[in-house]
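ok here's Adenosine 3'-phospho 5'-phosphosulfate transporter 1, seq below lol
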Amino acid sequence: MTRSYGATEDGQNGERFTDSQFLVFMNRILALTVAGLCCVVFKQPRHTAPMYKYSFASFSNILSSWCQYEALKYISFPTQVLAKASKVIPVMLMGKLVSHKTYEYWEYFTAVLISVGVSMFLLSSSSSTKHATITTFSGVIILAGYIVFDSFTSNWQDELFRHKMSSVQMMFGVNLFSCLLTVGSLLETGALFESLAFMSRHAEFAAHAALLSLCSAFGQLFIFYTISQFGAAVFTIIMTLRQAIAILLSCLLYGHAISATGIFGVAVVFFALFLRVYARSRVKKSSKRAQAPLQKV
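and the structure came out like this:
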């Protein structure tokens, strides 16, 4: 999306690929293939969920992916960081709306601390890197759409897991509808054949798109498993921390300096995680004490 393909030494700048939806389709078709193979090779539980319910998660997932790719053209890097690091709160609020979940005050408080800490660390680590510096109003609107649709997707998938399906079955159902929706849109606009022609002209782009889709497909295996076992909010916290851990490991391995702001941000994150574990253990102990007299009777 941000680089040119086919550039030559004699001054030709090459072409840029601009169709976000085709990249979404590539990701989904490969994920569907991987999920289908897993369903065939490994024994799966009896499927009981209505098929049409997958379409809601598919539609919101397509829109969130499109908004994520499209927003890169119109927003600055700090805006991207702040938005991605602050997704925990929207996911929790969407959980109340979709699944009528209730969260304790300490869960909201630690979610805010994690968002603040990760934002501080990521922004301090990117100060010496060249990124886009302009954020447009349309970019903010697209980014807001990404947050809303992404929050709905994980919570709706969490709701669907009440049907006791496997994570692979969920992955297959969601990507099946995603492929149908995206290929229909691409055929209607004529972008499918244009994108395939671009891919045939530039083998390097085809390799990059295939690698991106392959990583996305295997990443989905872990994503759906995490949501099925721990829920949408915990999954979002893990994904938020992943960004900070990746940069922290890079700093440690390659000797990059970490600023005082970055160190403070890491400290805030670890404090929030400790507070979250401590509060959860207190809640479990309180519930056990409350159940103890009933069990004796």
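fwiw The first helix runs from residue 20 to 41. kinda neat tbh
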